[in-house]
Amino acid sequence: MFDPTAARFHFQLRKASIDDFEFAEALTRNNMSGYYRRHHLVWRGDLFLVSWRESENFILESDGEAVGVLRVTEEGDSLHIRDVQIAEGHRGQGAGTYLLDMSHRWARARGLKELQLRVFVDNPAAQLYQRMGYRLAGPRLAQLGAIRHMARRV
User: Could you tell me which Gene3D superfamilies the record lists for this protein (predicted)?
Assistant: First the structure.
């Protein structure tokens, strides 16, 4: 598994503030716009704001530049990964793996048993999630249609 402490990349993860909301919402909306179009969904900034307020939000930086967003919530014995967003031009460099590994470490440190996430069926990130040990979860509403629910043990 990817060890972020051994990485040659200069990733830093910091807790987001409300001042980071505009960056996070724009990055998420832009990254997801193609999926929303293809699957006939409508972006709702108001719902993103509600989710932002309910989540633990982090900004990923590389050499001092904001390049990504991680949003998680703890529910029962699970850590739910709400968003892993990487800016174009910074993908394929280990950033997503770094964020997933950090999430796994947090879940373990919190004594949680599982990590969960949802992904569009046509999102290439699903391959990364599978390499990181995520598998399709049991029957859930998100199993239907364009979105798959995935989980892994801690």
Answer: 3.40.630.30
